[in-house]
Amino acid sequence: MNGLGAETQFHVLAVDDSIIDRKLIERLLKTSSYQVTAVESGVKALEFLGLVGDEEFSNSNSKCQSVEVNLIITDYSMPAITGYDLLRKIKKSTSLRDIPVVIMSSENVPSRINSCLEHGAEEFFLKPVRQSDVNKLRPHLMRGQKNVPNLNKRKPVEECLSPDRIRAKLNHDLE
Amino acid sequence: MEIVGQLQKQFVDFSTSLYGEGFLDEQYLQLQKLQDESNPDFVCEVVSLFFDDSEKLLNNLATALQQQVVDFKQVDAHVHQFKGSSSSIGAQRVKNMCVAFRNFCEEKNLDGCLRCLQQLNHEYFLVKNKLETLFRLERQIVEAGGTVPVIVA
């Protein structure tokens, strides 16, 4: 596994408090040849991403290179910080908000789903997550690659692409 | 080779009955698909995690329901977790029992909860037993030089 720029595998951060579901999602992601880091809580996820409290680590480029994350997939129901809370924090962060976020839940609650999509989640998967769900991640990962040539730069993004994508997705889903 | 054939038949018959009787569902088949030469013990590993997690949860449930003042939210949280894990490995009857259990939690029905816990214990140990038998059959087939038949729903 090399750590060089554009040819690296996509790196997915998976967040789930269930050890069984962590093992499952990790295996599913690895069959798609993604590099996976699986953590057990929103707090651990934020630490990994370099966000502690609402402060961002003054990450220089050297730290960024090793923790570049191309997608975050998180369970919704977790103690302390829920997947929704995690989503909000990520989308509020100038350095992290372009990372696509996907939510998983064992419960089919329309208001919950809409809320997550409205706040920037790309997809909402019902558990148990299948290979067919994981296959839906690729377009989001590919898009991330095209938009930001070098995620390590961490400049604030002027045009917020995310809200437009959500609107498009919501419109599509509500028709 | 005669033995392998017999074991394989036993395996297929037993697996089929597990699906037929609702002990296992589609999701268990999905787990099988994730197992390959590079991850030959995947199913067994996930199921082992499930066993450990479940036994902890059953203990937690027993404790929670024995409290002077039962915290039904806490009980529900445990059942929710159990429902999730059983669903993730395809233990259908356990999952269904959890669904019923959650209804009693919502009603704060202690008797109902206690009965459900009893049934949940029963279902869990049943499926545990069945899965251990399944794994044993697989091992025997491999040890006898055969390959484990792939079950397609």
Question: What features would you highlight for this structure?
Answer:
heterodimer; A: 175 residues; five-stranded parallel β-sheet; 7 strands; 17% strand; globular; disordered N terminus; B: 153 residues; mainly alpha; 78% helix
Shape of chain B: elongated
Q: How many helices of chain B does DSSP assign?
A: 6
Largest sheet data of chain A: 5 strands, parallel
- Which runs of chain B of at least 5 residues are low in confidence (pLDDT < 50)? none
Q: Helicity range of the residues of chain A?
A: 40-55%
Radius of gyration of chain B: 18 Å
Extended strand count of chain A? 7
**Range of strand content of chain B:** under 5%
Round the mean pLDDT of chain A to the nearest integer and report it. 81
Helices and strands of chain B, in order, run as: HHHHHH
> Hey, roughly how much beta strand do the residues of chain A contain?
15-25%
Largest beta-sheet details of chain B: none
CA-based shape of chain A: globular
Helical fraction of chain B: over 70%
In total, how many beta strands of chain B?
0
Largest interface: A-B, 15 and 21 residues
Q: With helices defined by DSSP (H or I, 4 residues minimum), what is the helix count of chain A?
A: 8
State the separation between the terminal residues of chain B, measured CA to CA: 26 Å
GO biological process, one term (chain A): phosphorelay signal transduction system
Pfam families (chain A): Response_reg
Keywords (chain A): Phosphoprotein, Transcription, Transcription regulation, Two-component regulatory system
Domain Response regulatory (chain A): 11-142
